[in-house]
Predict the 3D structure of the following.
Amino acid sequence: MAVDHAVVQRVRAIYGERLRGLFAFGSRVAGVPRPDSDLDLGVWLDGPLRRRDTWLPWIAAFERADPPLDPTFITTTSLDAPPPWLLEAVRAGVEVWFDPSGDLAHRLRRVRAALAGGEYRRRLFMGLPYYERTAS
């Protein structure tokens, strides 16, 4: 999937200097979207993630986007101690769309290396994936 530069530009306009990085993941990146699939985006922001300054501006800017844009807002903590959704996204493949410092790509490579190195064990429960951290 190609970077949507118009989306990147709008996200940068919304969040300004708070925006540390932007990446796409999910079925569209994996090349297996359904006709009604949304576009999953990881939005790395500085500062606290409060509804009024994260979700509300996003909705105002993208409520009519086609395909629908589904943001997951993250902070540095999410990249340092990745939650299961991020482990699953990295495992399936991500595309960095905005990363002026190169730090996002570096952190996502570290997550990918941790997965490949067996630091996390993927399990299924009733067909749904979850991750266990292995002993270090």
About this structure: The chain has a mean pLDDT of 93. The radius of gyration is 15 Å. The beta strands are 19-25, 39-45, 69-74, 94-98, 120-125, 128-133. The longest strand covers residues 19-25.
